[in-house]
Design brief:
Layout (H helix, E strand, L loop, with lengths): L1 H22 L1 H4 L12 H12 L14 H13 L5 H26 L1 H6 L7 H16 L2 H8 L4 H16 L3 H15 L6 H15 L10 H27 L3 H12 L10 H7 L5 H10 L5 H7 L4 H14 L6 H9 L14 H24 L5 H38 L1
Helix pairs in contact: 1-5, 1-7, 1-8, 3-4, 5-7, 5-9, 7-18, 8-18, 9-10, 9-11, 10-11, 10-12, 11-12, 11-17, 17-18, 17-20, 19-20
């Protein structure tokens, strides 16, 4: 019966995406909330066109996609045709949903039983058994994920690699988890900050599945460093392969330098574009360093404070990266929201669920309106649009802080209940 429900959900998800591809692709593919200079498929097509003419796709300031992605789409469009790209995106998105479904099932096999030993709540078995299906539906029917897929944003591929990383980490396969983390970092840079957390998940899985006599004492340094080095090794391999295929290192500056230095200030749902349009140029490098590399400060303290909940820490880091990247989109936010049901039993003390959902609903309506008022009608200005990006950042912050607070409240109540 569960397989039939999954099949029906996938079929409906496919139908929605297929319908929107034929009715709303032109409008969605131009939306700043869904597509950025880094993830735009139209820019990928430009790069593919240059490759087919034996030119350098990184000559100029149009293409910022990773070289292997350009080479893949060059092969894909030659082998099939451009019309089949929609099928590729739909297929990858549906596969990502299936991977998420299997990830949640695995989580409830190896992590959930231990969580319940220290739980102060009791849950109906029917609710817990349905969480994988609920997570699948959260992904398949999330408007942010659907519109990102239909807009042919390369965020779809980044999200897929992150979900595969999480899937293999929960199966205790560090090498494969590190590989897909490296693929995500190769495509979009920011998943590199997730690499140190892979070891925490795999070691927790190994302790959960090992016999009591074979269990080892947790050691964060021993657990985290090998997967991080694996990610770096795989990433270097991908970069060297790109250099060999293109014959130039220019893509490093055009792909990763472009992301780090925020050279394109085209409006998006992030806070970087407006800030760096206004900041004095002599202070730009200081703020670039502060904005970009403060992300490296989060994984270790989070792992230290919440190390007994490594998958939760990974989720929080994915949410932080969604809000503090140079060129964010709704696809980044949609990924961590889709992972939310995974922690149903941890977030009972979450206080701002309705407020957060209502905020994102209104943002989805107001972003196109404010853009039209500013750019099309000329009755507004940049502050109209930027105000919404501040609301987005605030809402992300509330979700992150309230989730951590809910988990800490749960741990506090469980501890004091035991003492009584």
């Amino acid at each position: 019966m569960g397989g039939a429900k999954v099949g029906i959900a996938l079929l409906i998800g496919f139908a929605i995406r297929f319908f929107l591809f034929h009715t709303a692709y032109e409008s969605l593919s131009r939306r700043n909330e869904l597509v950025t200079p880094v993830t735009s498929f139209s820019r990928v097509r430009e790069g593919v066109f240059f490759l087919q003419l034996n030119g350098d796709p990184y000559e100029g300031d149009v293409v910022h996609a990773a070289p292997l992605l350009l080479i893949f789409f060059d092969w894909f469009t030659r082998t099939f045709s451009l019309e089949f790209v929609q099928w590729l995106y739909i297929g990858v998105d549906l596969l990502a949903a299936v991977v998420l479904y299997q990830t949640v099932k695995r989580y409830h096999q190896v992590i959930f039983p231990e969580d319940m030993k220290n739980s102060i709540e009791t849950f109906l078995p029917s609710v817990i058994d349905n969480l994988p299906l609920i997570s699948l539906c959260f992904y398949l029917f999330n408007p942010m994920i659907i519109c990102t897929c239909v807009a042919t944003s390369t965020t779809t591929f980044v999200n897929f690699s992150i979900l595969l990383m999480l899937y293999f980490a929960l199966h205790g396969k560090r090498t494969l988890a590190a590989f897909f983390c490296a693929v995500g970092a190769y495509l979009d840079f920011y998943p590199i900050f997730l690499s140190v957390l892979i070891g925490l998940i795999t070691s927790r899985v190994q302790r959960s599945t090992a016999k009591k006599a074979e269990q080892t004492t947790p050691n964060p340094i021993r657990d985290c460093i090998p997967p991080f080095l694996m990610v770096v090794t795989f990433l270097v391999f991908l970069l060297v392969m790109s250099r060999e295929l293109l014959g130039s290192w220019k893509f490093i500056e055009k792909c990763y330098g472009f992301i780090i230095y925020v050279w394109d200030l085209e409006p998006n749902i992030g806070i970087f574009w407006y800030f760096f349009a206004e900041v004095f140029q002599e202070f730009r490098n200081l703020f670039i360093f502060s904005f970009q590399f403060h992300l490296a400060l989060y994984p270790i303290p989070l792992a230290y404070r919440l190390g007994d909940h490594p998958v939760f820490v990974m989720w929080i880091m994915i949410a932080i990266l969604a809000g503090f990247r140079s060129y964010p989109s709704f696809g980044d936010i949609g990924l961590y929201l889709s992972l939310g049901p995974l922690f149903y039993h941890k977030l009972h003390e979450f206080e701002y669920g309705f407020l957060s959902a209502a905020t994102f609903l209104f943002l989805g309506v107001l972003y196109p309106i404010m853009w039209h008022m500013w750019i099309m009608a000329g009755t507004g200005n940049a502050n109209f649009y930027y105000a919404l990006t501040l609301v987005t950042a605030t809402c992300n912050g509330y979700i992150i802080s309230d989730s951590i607070s809910a988990l800490n409240k749960r741990k506090f109540l469980a501890k004091h209940q035991k003492e009584e």
